[in-house]
Amino acid sequence: MSQLDQSVAELTAIEGATAAAIVDIGSGMALAASGNPGFNLDVAAAGNSNVVRAKLNTMRELGLTGAIDDILITLEDQYHLINVLSEESTQGLFIYLVLNKNTANLALARHRLSNVAKKVSV
Q1: Which CATH number belongs to the domain containing residue 32 in this structure?
Q2: How many domains does the chain divide into?
């Protein structure tokens, strides 16, 4: 099992997680993915790469120099967490985590996501 697959396995083990992917921001391609969120995970990964690129472009236009820790999208029955990786070896990648809103603890999931993100390497 590759290191990316191992990281995705750790993410999907988070209570309430239904899917996870590690995604290339530029292409929108999932380098590793797992789970069954009830929709096409590859399409979601590609679409969320547009979200990340738009936010990075807006930050650049505003002259904001900080890094994105995460982006939270709250739906009726799901949380979608996007964690932009910032280590030199993982620049250009993000983690996409889908959580069931009824069974996940958002604070704990963000904490665990942050811990996994620190260990991701390509």
Answers
A1: 3.30.450.30
A2: 1
